[in-house]
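Just curious: can you write whichever protein you like plus the matching structure tokens?

***
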Amino acid sequence: MSENRSGSFIVGLLLGAAAGTITGILVAPRPGKETRKLLKKSADALPELAEDLSTSVQIQADRLSESALRNWDETLLRLKEAIAAGIEASQRERQILKRTDAAASDEELYSHSYTSGAAAATADDELIETMSEPER
């Protein structure tokens, strides 16, 4: 943005200098012949001034273009890094969830087998008690 302001300033400075020169020549107390001679010199200098102005504008446009391209490249790089970080975080979270699901499944199997085993042991104990009781 400051590059754009400096380019505008240079253009304004050159145009202001040209306008000031023409006004100064026209208002100056000189004989007509001298004034015409100065005007001719100034008119001859206008193509060079226009070329300088064109070059200055071109340089500013190139700088702005380079700056925009650099900003675009930096933005793309940050976007790629953010996407990569998101994918990595997603994969880590998926692994954590898989481990949590596996642990819960193992716990459920252990709990079920323990409960089944305890129920079987209780049933066995009851059977043994029934068999060991004297018949009446």
Remarks:
- The longest helix spans residues 32-132.
- The two ends are 108 Å apart (CA to CA).
